[in-house]
Amino acid sequence: MVWCTDRRIERTEELPQEFLNAWPGKRTLGLYRFLPLFFVLGAALEFSMINWQVGEVNFYNTFKKRRAEEIVESIENQGSYPFPPEVLAKLQKSVESKST
């Protein structure tokens, strides 16, 4: 019975190597042949971060809210920020409306 489990272990160790060797372009591109795969995965991640929402929140809404809070906080602490007053007023209104 031991020989059976040993063969399974050998087979599972060979599977990733077989998959990597079966990927096309090994001779011409070498390790770089996986770049298109990672570009597609990165684009899918970015798409999901932009378009998938949980309730009314997605990644970019959260980021923009946090950034606006940081700007308002720095204005309150330092007294100024390199933005025109109209932009600052909009940012403050945005943070106040989101917090209520």
From TrEMBL:
UniProt keyword terms in alphabetical order: Membrane, Transmembrane, Transmembrane helix
Alphabetical list of InterPro entries matching this protein: UQCC5
Membrane spanning stretches: 34-54
Pfam families (alphabetical): UPF0640 (PF15114)
The protein's name: Uncharacterized protein
